[in-house]
Q: What sequence folds into this?
Protein backbone atom coordinates (compact mmCIF):
# COMPACT_ATOMS: atom_id res chain seq x y z
CA UNK A 1 0.00 0.00 0.00
CA UNK A 2 2.81 2.39 0.92
CA UNK A 3 4.54 1.65 -2.37
CA UNK A 4 1.30 2.20 -4.33
CA UNK A 5 0.85 5.50 -2.55
CA UNK A 6 4.44 6.47 -3.34
CA UNK A 7 3.87 5.72 -7.01
CA UNK A 8 0.69 7.79 -7.04
CA UNK A 9 2.48 10.68 -5.34
CA UNK A 10 5.36 10.45 -7.83
CA UNK A 11 2.94 10.73 -10.74
CA UNK A 12 1.02 13.59 -9.11
CA UNK A 13 4.05 15.76 -8.40
CA UNK A 14 5.34 15.26 -11.94
CA UNK A 15 2.22 16.67 -13.55
CA UNK A 16 2.11 20.40 -14.27
CA UNK A 17 -1.58 20.66 -13.41
CA UNK A 18 -0.80 19.72 -9.79
CA UNK A 19 1.26 22.89 -9.43
CA UNK A 20 -0.88 25.14 -11.60
CA UNK A 21 -3.98 24.39 -9.57
CA UNK A 22 -2.88 26.19 -6.36
CA UNK A 23 -1.51 29.06 -8.45
CA UNK A 24 -4.89 29.30 -10.15
CA UNK A 25 -6.60 29.32 -6.73
CA UNK A 26 -4.29 32.09 -5.52
CA UNK A 27 -4.88 34.24 -8.60
CA UNK A 28 -8.64 33.93 -8.27
CA UNK A 29 -8.42 34.73 -4.55
CA UNK A 30 -6.52 37.93 -5.42
CA UNK A 31 -9.06 38.85 -8.10
CA UNK A 32 -11.84 38.26 -5.56
CA UNK A 33 -9.99 40.49 -3.10
CA UNK A 34 -9.70 43.29 -5.67
CA UNK A 35 -13.35 43.02 -6.76
CA UNK A 36 -14.65 43.01 -3.19
CA UNK A 37 -12.19 45.61 -1.93
CA UNK A 38 -13.67 47.55 0.95
CA UNK A 39 -16.92 45.61 1.29
CA UNK A 40 -17.74 42.43 3.18
CA UNK A 41 -14.26 42.27 4.66
CA UNK A 42 -15.14 39.79 7.37
CA UNK A 43 -16.95 37.46 5.00
CA UNK A 44 -14.04 37.63 2.58
CA UNK A 45 -11.66 36.48 5.31
CA UNK A 46 -14.01 33.83 6.66
CA UNK A 47 -14.40 32.30 3.19
CA UNK A 48 -10.66 32.64 2.50
CA UNK A 49 -11.40 34.92 -0.46
CA UNK A 50 -14.07 32.54 -1.75
CA UNK A 51 -11.39 29.91 -2.27
CA UNK A 52 -13.77 26.97 -1.89
CA UNK A 53 -15.22 27.51 -5.38
CA UNK A 54 -11.78 27.68 -6.96
CA UNK A 55 -10.49 24.72 -4.99
CA UNK A 56 -13.42 22.66 -6.25
CA UNK A 57 -12.62 23.69 -9.79
CA UNK A 58 -8.98 22.61 -9.36
CA UNK A 59 -9.99 19.38 -7.65
CA UNK A 60 -12.34 18.40 -10.45
CA UNK A 61 -9.56 18.76 -13.01
CA UNK A 62 -6.80 17.10 -10.97
CA UNK A 63 -8.72 14.20 -9.52
CA UNK A 64 -10.53 13.24 -12.68
CA UNK A 65 -7.16 13.27 -14.44
CA UNK A 66 -5.74 10.97 -11.77
CA UNK A 67 -8.08 8.19 -12.87
CA UNK A 68 -8.61 8.75 -16.55
CA UNK A 69 -4.91 9.15 -17.32
CA UNK A 70 -4.52 5.47 -16.44
CA UNK A 71 -7.12 4.41 -18.99
CA UNK A 72 -5.64 6.39 -21.86
CA UNK A 73 -2.26 4.69 -22.20
CA UNK A 74 -3.08 1.28 -20.78
CA UNK A 75 -1.02 2.01 -17.68
CA UNK A 76 -3.94 0.71 -15.62
CA UNK A 77 -2.92 -2.83 -16.69
CA UNK A 78 0.58 -2.42 -15.27
CA UNK A 79 -0.79 -0.85 -12.11
CA UNK A 80 -3.25 -3.70 -11.63
CA UNK A 81 -0.96 -6.65 -12.16
CA UNK A 82 1.79 -5.07 -10.08
CA UNK A 83 -0.50 -4.47 -7.11
CA UNK A 84 -2.10 -7.07 -4.87
CA UNK A 85 -5.67 -6.21 -5.71
CA UNK A 86 -7.93 -3.55 -7.12
CA UNK A 87 -8.71 -2.08 -3.71
CA UNK A 88 -5.05 -1.14 -3.37
CA UNK A 89 -5.12 0.76 -6.68
CA UNK A 90 -8.41 2.49 -5.91
CA UNK A 91 -7.53 3.15 -2.28
CA UNK A 92 -4.14 4.68 -2.97
CA UNK A 93 -5.65 7.08 -5.50
CA UNK A 94 -8.38 8.01 -3.05
CA UNK A 95 -5.96 8.67 -0.20
CA UNK A 96 -3.73 10.73 -2.46
CA UNK A 97 -6.53 12.98 -3.71
CA UNK A 98 -7.73 13.37 -0.15
CA UNK A 99 -4.25 14.52 0.92
CA UNK A 100 -4.06 16.85 -2.09
CA UNK A 101 -7.43 18.31 -1.10
CA UNK A 102 -6.18 19.00 2.42
CA UNK A 103 -2.99 20.57 1.07
CA UNK A 104 -5.04 22.90 -1.16
CA UNK A 105 -7.08 23.97 1.85
CA UNK A 106 -4.00 24.57 3.99
CA UNK A 107 -2.59 26.68 1.15
CA UNK A 108 -5.86 28.62 1.08
CA UNK A 109 -5.40 29.45 4.78
CA UNK A 110 -1.81 30.54 4.18
CA UNK A 111 -2.79 32.62 1.14
CA UNK A 112 -5.57 34.26 3.19
CA UNK A 113 -3.20 35.18 6.01
CA UNK A 114 -0.71 36.62 3.51
CA UNK A 115 -3.36 38.50 1.51
CA UNK A 116 -4.72 39.91 4.77
CA UNK A 117 -1.41 41.74 5.17
CA UNK A 118 -1.53 43.36 1.73
CA UNK A 119 -3.38 46.59 0.85
CA UNK A 120 -6.14 44.37 -0.56
CA UNK A 121 -7.64 44.46 2.90
CA UNK A 122 -8.54 46.82 5.63
CA UNK A 123 -6.63 45.23 8.45
CA UNK A 124 -8.94 43.30 10.74
CA UNK A 125 -8.11 41.70 14.05
CA UNK A 126 -8.07 37.90 13.86
CA UNK A 127 -9.50 37.81 17.34
CA UNK A 128 -12.59 39.96 16.71
CA UNK A 129 -15.81 38.11 17.35
CA UNK A 130 -17.65 37.29 14.12
CA UNK A 131 -20.24 34.60 13.25
CA UNK A 132 -21.33 31.80 15.61
CA UNK A 133 -19.91 33.88 18.50
CA UNK A 134 -16.47 32.83 17.42
CA UNK A 135 -13.36 34.76 16.46
CA UNK A 136 -12.65 35.57 12.84
CA UNK A 137 -9.74 33.12 12.94
CA UNK A 138 -11.90 30.23 14.15
CA UNK A 139 -14.51 31.18 11.54
CA UNK A 140 -11.86 30.84 8.84
CA UNK A 141 -10.56 27.53 10.17
CA UNK A 142 -14.04 26.08 10.66
CA UNK A 143 -15.10 27.09 7.15
CA UNK A 144 -12.00 25.40 5.77
CA UNK A 145 -12.76 22.26 7.79
CA UNK A 146 -16.36 22.19 6.63
CA UNK A 147 -15.20 22.77 3.08
CA UNK A 148 -12.84 19.79 3.27
CA UNK A 149 -15.87 17.64 4.07
CA UNK A 150 -17.99 19.04 1.26
CA UNK A 151 -15.18 18.84 -1.31
CA UNK A 152 -14.70 15.20 -0.31
CA UNK A 153 -18.25 14.62 -1.54
CA UNK A 154 -17.28 16.12 -4.88
CA UNK A 155 -14.17 13.91 -5.01
CA UNK A 156 -16.32 10.85 -4.38
CA UNK A 157 -18.64 11.85 -7.23
CA UNK A 158 -15.59 12.36 -9.46
CA UNK A 159 -14.26 8.89 -8.58
CA UNK A 160 -17.67 7.41 -9.24
CA UNK A 161 -18.04 9.07 -12.63
CA UNK A 162 -14.41 8.37 -13.61
CA UNK A 163 -15.02 4.67 -13.15
CA UNK A 164 -18.07 4.79 -15.42
CA UNK A 165 -16.70 7.10 -18.11
CA UNK A 166 -13.06 6.75 -19.08
CA UNK A 167 -12.77 10.02 -20.98
CA UNK A 168 -11.17 12.84 -19.06
CA UNK A 169 -12.95 15.66 -20.90
CA UNK A 170 -16.37 14.15 -20.24
CA UNK A 171 -15.64 13.50 -16.56
CA UNK A 172 -14.40 17.06 -16.07
CA UNK A 173 -17.36 18.64 -17.85
CA UNK A 174 -19.86 16.48 -16.01
CA UNK A 175 -18.39 17.27 -12.61
CA UNK A 176 -18.03 20.98 -13.26
CA UNK A 177 -21.74 20.94 -14.11
CA UNK A 178 -22.47 19.14 -10.84
CA UNK A 179 -20.33 21.60 -8.88
CA UNK A 180 -21.66 24.78 -10.42
CA UNK A 181 -25.20 23.86 -11.46
CA UNK A 182 -25.96 21.08 -9.01
CA UNK A 183 -27.18 23.31 -6.21
CA UNK A 184 -29.59 25.24 -8.38
CA UNK A 185 -30.83 22.04 -10.02
CA UNK A 186 -31.51 20.65 -6.58
CA UNK A 187 -33.35 23.74 -5.36
CA UNK A 188 -35.46 23.95 -8.54
CA UNK A 189 -36.36 20.33 -7.98
CA UNK A 190 -37.45 21.06 -4.44
CA UNK A 191 -39.45 24.13 -5.40
CA UNK A 192 -41.21 22.20 -8.16
CA UNK A 193 -42.14 19.36 -5.82
CA UNK A 194 -42.98 21.11 -2.57
CA UNK A 195 -45.13 18.16 -1.47
CA UNK A 196 -42.18 15.80 -1.39
CA UNK A 197 -39.66 18.31 -0.16
CA UNK A 198 -38.98 16.33 3.04
CA UNK A 199 -37.63 13.50 0.93
CA UNK A 200 -36.07 15.47 -1.90
CA UNK A 201 -34.09 17.68 0.46
CA UNK A 202 -31.90 14.64 1.19
CA UNK A 203 -30.70 14.39 -2.42
CA UNK A 204 -26.91 14.47 -2.83
CA UNK A 205 -26.86 17.68 -4.88
CA UNK A 206 -28.48 19.55 -1.99
CA UNK A 207 -25.55 18.54 0.22
CA UNK A 208 -23.21 20.67 -1.89
CA UNK A 209 -24.72 23.69 -0.08
CA UNK A 210 -22.79 22.85 3.10
CA UNK A 211 -19.92 25.35 2.90
CA UNK A 212 -22.05 28.22 1.61
CA UNK A 213 -24.67 27.62 4.26
CA UNK A 214 -21.99 27.54 6.94
CA UNK A 215 -20.80 31.07 6.19
CA UNK A 216 -24.18 32.40 5.05
CA UNK A 217 -26.78 30.54 7.04
CA UNK A 218 -29.57 33.04 6.48
CA UNK A 219 -29.53 32.88 2.69
CA UNK A 220 -28.87 29.18 2.26
CA UNK A 221 -30.91 27.48 4.94
CA UNK A 222 -34.10 28.54 3.17
CA UNK A 223 -32.71 26.95 -0.01
CA UNK A 224 -31.41 23.69 1.47
CA UNK A 225 -34.14 23.14 4.08
CA UNK A 226 -31.54 21.30 6.16
CA UNK A 227 -29.58 22.35 9.23
CA UNK A 228 -25.79 22.61 9.18
CA UNK A 229 -25.33 19.31 10.99
CA UNK A 230 -27.84 17.55 8.74
CA UNK A 231 -25.87 18.76 5.74
CA UNK A 232 -22.65 17.57 7.36
CA UNK A 233 -24.03 14.09 7.98
CA UNK A 234 -25.46 14.00 4.46
CA UNK A 235 -22.06 14.91 3.02
CA UNK A 236 -20.30 12.14 4.90
CA UNK A 237 -22.99 9.59 4.05
CA UNK A 238 -23.00 10.38 0.31
CA UNK A 239 -19.18 10.51 0.16
CA UNK A 240 -19.00 6.98 1.55
CA UNK A 241 -21.78 5.87 -0.78
CA UNK A 242 -20.16 7.25 -3.95
CA UNK A 243 -16.70 6.01 -3.01
CA UNK A 244 -18.15 2.53 -2.48
CA UNK A 245 -20.20 2.57 -5.68
CA UNK A 246 -17.12 3.74 -7.59
CA UNK A 247 -15.13 0.87 -6.14
CA UNK A 248 -17.78 -1.70 -7.03
CA UNK A 249 -17.78 -0.47 -10.63
CA UNK A 250 -13.98 -0.37 -10.73
CA UNK A 251 -13.82 -3.93 -9.39
CA UNK A 252 -16.28 -5.20 -11.99
CA UNK A 253 -14.64 -3.34 -14.84
CA UNK A 254 -12.84 -5.31 -17.57
CA UNK A 255 -9.48 -4.01 -18.68
CA UNK B 1 8.14 -22.63 -13.78
CA UNK B 2 4.87 -21.26 -15.14
CA UNK B 3 2.14 -23.84 -15.15
CA UNK B 4 -1.18 -23.21 -16.87
CA UNK B 5 -3.82 -25.93 -16.55
CA UNK B 6 -7.19 -26.11 -18.30
CA UNK B 7 -7.62 -22.37 -18.33
CA UNK B 8 -10.88 -21.04 -19.73
CA UNK B 9 -11.64 -17.32 -19.85
CA UNK B 10 -15.02 -15.76 -20.41
CA UNK B 11 -15.36 -12.12 -21.34
CA UNK B 12 -18.86 -10.69 -21.14
CA UNK B 13 -20.33 -14.16 -21.26
CA UNK B 14 -18.32 -15.14 -24.32
CA UNK B 15 -15.79 -17.94 -24.11
CA UNK B 16 -12.57 -16.37 -25.40
CA UNK B 17 -9.98 -18.88 -24.13
CA UNK B 18 -10.80 -22.61 -24.35
CA UNK B 19 -9.10 -25.00 -21.96
CA UNK B 20 -5.53 -23.91 -22.48
CA UNK B 21 -2.76 -25.85 -20.75
CA UNK B 22 0.90 -25.06 -21.13
CA UNK B 23 4.12 -25.04 -19.16
CA UNK B 24 7.11 -22.75 -19.41
CA UNK B 25 10.37 -23.74 -17.77
CA UNK B 26 13.25 -21.42 -16.85
CA UNK B 27 15.11 -20.31 -19.95
CA UNK B 28 12.30 -21.21 -22.35
CA UNK B 29 10.95 -18.71 -24.84
CA UNK B 30 7.42 -19.61 -25.82
CA UNK B 31 5.96 -17.99 -28.91
CA UNK B 32 2.18 -17.59 -28.80
CA UNK B 33 1.21 -17.32 -32.44
CA UNK B 34 -2.21 -16.70 -33.93
CA UNK B 35 -4.21 -14.36 -36.13
CA UNK B 36 -5.66 -11.13 -34.73
CA UNK B 37 -8.65 -11.56 -32.45
CA UNK B 38 -7.76 -15.11 -31.54
CA UNK B 39 -7.22 -14.48 -27.83
CA UNK B 40 -3.47 -13.93 -27.40
CA UNK B 41 -3.90 -10.71 -25.44
CA UNK B 42 -6.78 -12.16 -23.42
CA UNK B 43 -4.69 -15.19 -22.50
CA UNK B 44 -1.81 -12.98 -21.39
CA UNK B 45 -4.15 -10.83 -19.30
CA UNK B 46 -5.49 -14.00 -17.72
CA UNK B 47 -1.99 -15.12 -16.75
CA UNK B 48 -1.49 -11.66 -15.20
CA UNK B 49 -4.55 -12.13 -13.00
CA UNK B 50 -6.53 -9.44 -14.81
CA UNK B 51 -9.56 -11.53 -15.78
CA UNK B 52 -11.83 -14.09 -14.21
CA UNK B 53 -11.02 -17.63 -15.32
CA UNK B 54 -11.48 -21.29 -14.50
CA UNK B 55 -8.59 -23.73 -14.26
CA UNK B 56 -5.32 -22.96 -12.57
CA UNK B 57 -2.28 -20.77 -13.18
CA UNK B 58 0.77 -20.90 -10.95
CA UNK B 59 4.38 -19.80 -10.89
CA UNK B 60 6.62 -22.11 -8.88
CA UNK B 61 3.52 -23.69 -7.32
CA UNK B 62 2.22 -20.29 -6.17
CA UNK B 63 -1.31 -19.76 -7.50
CA UNK B 64 -2.33 -16.65 -9.43
CA UNK B 65 -5.95 -15.52 -9.22
CA UNK B 66 -7.77 -12.31 -10.01
CA UNK B 67 -7.49 -11.31 -6.35
CA UNK B 68 -4.08 -12.72 -5.49
CA UNK B 69 -1.11 -11.30 -7.32
CA UNK B 70 1.56 -12.43 -4.87
CA UNK B 71 3.09 -14.75 -7.47
CA UNK B 72 3.31 -11.85 -9.95
CA UNK B 73 5.96 -10.02 -7.92
CA UNK B 74 8.64 -11.36 -10.27
CA UNK B 75 6.69 -10.94 -13.51
CA UNK B 76 7.11 -8.17 -16.06
CA UNK B 77 4.74 -7.52 -18.93
CA UNK B 78 3.99 -5.43 -21.97
CA UNK B 79 0.34 -5.83 -22.99
CA UNK B 80 -0.97 -4.38 -26.26
CA UNK B 81 0.54 -0.89 -26.01
CA UNK B 82 3.49 0.20 -23.91
CA UNK B 83 2.13 1.41 -20.56
CA UNK B 84 3.81 4.81 -20.45
CA UNK B 85 2.92 8.06 -18.68
CA UNK B 86 3.40 10.75 -21.35
CA UNK B 87 4.17 13.50 -18.83
CA UNK B 88 7.15 11.58 -17.44
CA UNK B 89 10.52 11.06 -19.11
CA UNK B 90 11.50 7.55 -20.08
CA UNK B 91 13.77 7.29 -17.07
CA UNK B 92 11.00 8.45 -14.73
CA UNK B 93 8.68 5.84 -16.22
CA UNK B 94 11.27 3.20 -15.36
CA UNK B 95 11.94 4.71 -11.92
CA UNK B 96 8.29 4.36 -11.04
CA UNK B 97 8.63 0.58 -10.94
CA UNK B 98 12.36 0.08 -10.52
CA UNK B 99 13.77 -1.44 -7.34
CA UNK B 100 17.45 -1.15 -8.21
CA UNK B 101 19.37 1.65 -9.84
CA UNK B 102 22.02 -0.65 -11.23
CA UNK B 103 19.42 -2.79 -12.97
CA UNK B 104 17.74 0.34 -14.35
CA UNK B 105 20.97 1.66 -15.86
CA UNK B 106 21.69 -1.75 -17.33
CA UNK B 107 18.30 -1.87 -19.03
CA UNK B 108 18.78 1.60 -20.48
CA UNK B 109 22.12 0.61 -22.00
CA UNK B 110 21.07 -2.90 -23.12
CA UNK B 111 18.10 -1.48 -24.99
CA UNK B 112 20.23 1.42 -26.30
CA UNK B 113 17.88 4.09 -24.97
CA UNK B 114 20.55 6.53 -23.70
CA UNK B 115 19.88 9.23 -26.26
CA UNK B 116 16.18 9.61 -25.60
CA UNK B 117 15.57 8.27 -22.08
CA UNK B 118 15.70 11.71 -20.44
CA UNK B 119 13.23 13.31 -22.83
CA UNK B 120 9.49 13.52 -22.15
CA UNK B 121 7.98 10.28 -23.39
CA UNK B 122 5.00 11.98 -25.04
CA UNK B 123 7.35 12.93 -27.88
CA UNK B 124 8.62 9.39 -28.44
CA UNK B 125 8.25 7.55 -31.73
CA UNK B 126 6.38 4.25 -31.76
CA UNK B 127 9.66 2.36 -31.71
CA UNK B 128 11.02 4.31 -28.73
CA UNK B 129 7.80 3.70 -26.80
CA UNK B 130 7.98 0.01 -27.64
CA UNK B 131 11.56 -0.22 -26.35
CA UNK B 132 10.62 1.61 -23.17
CA UNK B 133 7.65 -0.70 -22.69
CA UNK B 134 9.93 -3.71 -23.07
CA UNK B 135 12.35 -2.06 -20.64
CA UNK B 136 9.57 -1.72 -18.03
CA UNK B 137 8.76 -5.42 -18.48
CA UNK B 138 12.41 -6.38 -17.92
CA UNK B 139 12.82 -4.37 -14.69
CA UNK B 140 13.84 -6.01 -11.40
CA UNK B 141 15.20 -9.28 -12.81
CA UNK B 142 11.86 -10.95 -13.54
CA UNK B 143 11.36 -14.72 -13.57
CA UNK B 144 8.68 -14.46 -16.24
CA UNK B 145 8.34 -11.82 -18.94
CA UNK B 146 5.17 -11.52 -20.99
CA UNK B 147 5.48 -9.54 -24.21
CA UNK B 148 2.40 -8.93 -26.36
CA UNK B 149 3.44 -8.31 -29.98
CA UNK B 150 6.72 -6.70 -28.88
CA UNK B 151 8.10 -6.29 -32.41
CA UNK B 152 5.32 -3.87 -33.42
CA UNK B 153 6.72 -0.58 -34.64
CA UNK B 154 10.34 -1.71 -34.46
CA UNK B 155 12.78 -1.38 -37.34
CA UNK B 156 14.97 -4.31 -38.38
CA UNK B 157 17.95 -3.25 -36.27
CA UNK B 158 15.82 -2.90 -33.16
CA UNK B 159 14.10 -6.22 -33.84
CA UNK B 160 17.48 -7.93 -33.97
CA UNK B 161 18.55 -6.14 -30.81
CA UNK B 162 15.37 -7.11 -28.94
CA UNK B 163 15.88 -10.72 -29.99
CA UNK B 164 19.40 -10.64 -28.55
CA UNK B 165 18.13 -9.08 -25.34
CA UNK B 166 15.44 -11.76 -24.99
CA UNK B 167 18.05 -14.50 -25.53
CA UNK B 168 20.36 -12.88 -22.98
CA UNK B 169 17.66 -12.85 -20.30
CA UNK B 170 16.55 -16.37 -21.20
CA UNK B 171 20.12 -17.60 -20.82
CA UNK B 172 20.00 -16.26 -17.27
CA UNK B 173 16.95 -18.43 -16.62
CA UNK B 174 14.15 -15.97 -17.37
CA UNK B 175 10.96 -17.44 -18.91
CA UNK B 176 9.31 -15.67 -21.83
CA UNK B 177 5.80 -15.74 -23.22
CA UNK B 178 5.78 -13.70 -26.42
CA UNK B 179 2.91 -13.24 -28.85
CA UNK B 180 2.85 -12.45 -32.52
CA UNK B 181 0.42 -12.77 -35.38
CA UNK B 182 3.35 -13.59 -37.68
CA UNK B 183 4.94 -17.00 -37.22
CA UNK B 184 8.23 -16.05 -38.83
CA UNK B 185 8.74 -13.02 -36.60
CA UNK B 186 9.67 -15.14 -33.57
CA UNK B 187 11.19 -18.08 -35.46
CA UNK B 188 14.73 -17.04 -34.65
CA UNK B 189 14.15 -16.56 -30.94
CA UNK B 190 11.48 -18.92 -29.61
CA UNK B 191 12.28 -22.34 -28.20
CA UNK B 192 8.66 -23.46 -28.28
CA UNK B 193 5.78 -22.59 -30.54
CA UNK B 194 2.16 -22.53 -29.41
CA UNK B 195 -0.37 -21.94 -32.15
CA UNK B 196 -3.68 -20.43 -31.14
CA UNK B 197 -6.89 -20.41 -33.21
CA UNK B 198 -10.16 -19.06 -31.84
CA UNK B 199 -8.91 -19.37 -28.28
CA UNK B 200 -7.73 -22.95 -28.64
CA UNK B 201 -4.20 -24.35 -28.77
CA UNK B 202 -3.90 -26.19 -32.06
CA UNK B 203 -0.18 -26.92 -31.86
CA UNK B 204 2.34 -26.89 -29.03
CA UNK B 205 5.76 -28.12 -30.02
CA UNK B 206 9.38 -27.39 -29.24
CA UNK B 207 11.40 -25.80 -32.01
CA UNK B 208 13.94 -28.62 -31.71
CA UNK B 209 11.26 -31.11 -32.62
CA UNK B 210 10.03 -28.91 -35.43
CA UNK B 211 13.52 -28.49 -36.80
CA UNK B 212 13.96 -32.25 -36.96
CA UNK B 213 13.39 -33.69 -40.34
CA UNK B 214 9.70 -33.79 -41.10
CA UNK B 215 10.16 -34.07 -44.86
CA UNK B 216 7.96 -36.45 -46.72
CA UNK B 217 9.75 -36.28 -50.01
CA UNK B 218 13.28 -36.95 -51.11
CA UNK B 219 15.11 -35.86 -54.18
CA UNK B 220 17.44 -38.29 -55.88
CA UNK B 221 19.91 -37.71 -58.70
CA UNK B 222 20.94 -40.78 -60.66
CA UNK B 223 22.85 -41.60 -63.87
CA UNK B 224 21.07 -44.42 -65.67
CA UNK B 225 17.60 -42.93 -65.72
CA UNK B 226 15.81 -45.52 -67.83
CA UNK B 227 17.19 -48.49 -65.97
CA UNK B 228 16.31 -47.02 -62.64
CA UNK B 229 12.79 -46.09 -63.76
CA UNK B 230 12.36 -49.66 -64.78
CA UNK B 231 13.65 -50.90 -61.43
CA UNK B 232 11.32 -48.64 -59.44
CA UNK B 233 8.26 -49.55 -61.52
CA UNK B 234 8.87 -53.24 -61.11
CA UNK B 235 8.99 -52.80 -57.33
CA UNK B 236 5.87 -50.59 -57.22
CA UNK B 237 7.65 -47.49 -56.00
CA UNK B 238 5.90 -44.27 -56.99
CA UNK B 239 8.14 -41.62 -58.43
CA UNK B 240 8.09 -38.57 -60.60
CA UNK B 241 10.68 -36.45 -62.30
CA UNK B 242 11.25 -32.94 -61.03
CA UNK B 243 14.05 -30.97 -62.71
CA UNK B 244 16.08 -34.04 -63.57
CA UNK B 245 15.67 -35.41 -60.05
CA UNK B 246 13.59 -38.30 -58.93
CA UNK B 247 11.04 -37.32 -56.31
CA UNK B 248 9.98 -40.17 -54.05
CA UNK B 249 8.16 -40.50 -50.74
CA UNK B 250 10.26 -40.78 -47.61
CA UNK B 251 8.90 -44.24 -46.71
CA UNK B 252 10.32 -45.60 -49.97
CA UNK B 253 13.80 -44.20 -49.52
CA UNK B 254 15.24 -47.26 -47.76
CA UNK B 255 13.86 -49.72 -50.29
CA UNK B 256 15.07 -47.63 -53.20
CA UNK B 257 18.57 -47.33 -51.79
CA UNK B 258 18.78 -51.12 -51.31
CA UNK B 259 17.52 -51.81 -54.83
CA UNK B 260 19.94 -49.40 -56.41
CA UNK B 261 22.95 -50.82 -54.60
CA UNK B 262 21.95 -54.42 -55.14
CA UNK B 263 21.77 -53.76 -58.86
CA UNK B 264 25.12 -52.09 -58.99
CA UNK B 265 23.94 -48.54 -59.66
CA UNK B 266 25.03 -45.38 -57.91
CA UNK B 267 23.20 -42.53 -56.26
CA UNK B 268 24.69 -39.15 -57.13
CA UNK B 269 22.69 -37.20 -54.62
CA UNK B 270 19.98 -37.90 -52.05
CA UNK B 271 18.44 -35.05 -50.11
CA UNK B 272 15.24 -34.30 -48.25
CA UNK B 273 12.88 -31.63 -49.45
CA UNK B 274 13.57 -28.34 -47.61
CA UNK B 275 10.59 -26.80 -45.83
CA UNK B 276 10.43 -23.47 -44.08
CA UNK B 277 8.79 -23.15 -40.66
CA UNK B 278 5.42 -22.15 -42.04
CA UNK B 279 5.32 -25.06 -44.48
CA UNK B 280 6.26 -27.45 -41.71
CA UNK B 281 3.56 -26.15 -39.43
CA UNK B 282 0.96 -26.27 -42.17
CA UNK B 283 1.95 -29.84 -42.93
CA UNK B 284 1.72 -30.91 -39.28
CA UNK B 285 -1.67 -29.29 -38.97
CA UNK B 286 -3.02 -30.89 -42.13
CA UNK B 287 -1.69 -34.27 -40.99
CA UNK B 288 -3.45 -33.80 -37.68
CA UNK B 289 -6.67 -32.89 -39.39
CA UNK B 290 -6.31 -35.98 -41.57
CA UNK B 291 -5.80 -38.28 -38.61
CA UNK B 292 -8.67 -36.66 -36.73
CA UNK B 293 -10.98 -37.32 -39.66
CA UNK B 294 -10.00 -40.96 -39.79
CA UNK B 295 -10.95 -41.51 -36.16
N1 LIG C 1 -13.00 -6.22 -23.35
C1 LIG C 1 -13.54 -7.02 -24.27
N2 LIG C 1 -14.87 -7.03 -24.47
C2 LIG C 1 -15.43 -7.84 -25.40
N3 LIG C 1 -14.75 -8.67 -26.18
C3 LIG C 1 -13.43 -8.70 -26.05
C4 LIG C 1 -12.74 -7.87 -25.09
N4 LIG C 1 -11.42 -8.12 -25.19
C5 LIG C 1 -11.30 -9.05 -26.15
N5 LIG C 1 -12.49 -9.40 -26.67
C6 LIG C 1 -12.71 -10.39 -27.73
O1 LIG C 1 -11.88 -11.47 -27.46
C7 LIG C 1 -11.32 -11.99 -28.64
C8 LIG C 1 -9.83 -12.10 -28.49
O2 LIG C 1 -9.26 -10.82 -28.42
P1 LIG C 1 -7.72 -10.60 -28.15
O3 LIG C 1 -7.35 -11.38 -26.95
O4 LIG C 1 -7.47 -9.15 -28.11
O5 LIG C 1 -7.05 -11.25 -29.43
P2 LIG C 1 -5.57 -11.07 -30.01
O6 LIG C 1 -4.72 -10.45 -28.96
O7 LIG C 1 -5.15 -12.45 -30.37
O8 LIG C 1 -5.68 -10.21 -31.22
C9 LIG C 1 -11.73 -11.07 -29.77
O9 LIG C 1 -12.73 -11.74 -30.52
C10 LIG C 1 -12.30 -9.86 -29.08
O10 LIG C 1 -13.37 -9.38 -29.82
MG1 LIG D 1 -3.67 -8.69 -29.09
A:
Amino acid sequence: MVSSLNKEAYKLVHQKITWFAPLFVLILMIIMGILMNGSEQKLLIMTSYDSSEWILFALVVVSSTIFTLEFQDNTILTMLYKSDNKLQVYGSKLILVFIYNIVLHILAIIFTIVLQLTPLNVHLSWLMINQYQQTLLSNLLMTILVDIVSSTLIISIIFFTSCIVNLNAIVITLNLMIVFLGQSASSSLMIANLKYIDIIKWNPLNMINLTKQYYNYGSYHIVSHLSNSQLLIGNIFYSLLFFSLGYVIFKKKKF
Amino acid sequence: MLSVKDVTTFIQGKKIIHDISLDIKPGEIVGLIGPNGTGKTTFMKTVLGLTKFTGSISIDKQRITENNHQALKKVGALIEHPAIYPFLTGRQNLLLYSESNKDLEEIISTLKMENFIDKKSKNYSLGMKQKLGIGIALLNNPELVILDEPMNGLDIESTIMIRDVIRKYANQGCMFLISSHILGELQKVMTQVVLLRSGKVILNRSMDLLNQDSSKKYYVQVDKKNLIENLLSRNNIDYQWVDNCLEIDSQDVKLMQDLIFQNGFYLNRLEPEKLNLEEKVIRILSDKEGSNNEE
The domain at 2-211 of chain B is CATH 3.40.50.300 (Rossmann fold). Residues A 254; B 11-12, 16, 34, 36-42 surround adenosine-5'-diphosphate (ligand 1) (CB under 6 Å). Chain B has a mean pLDDT of 90.
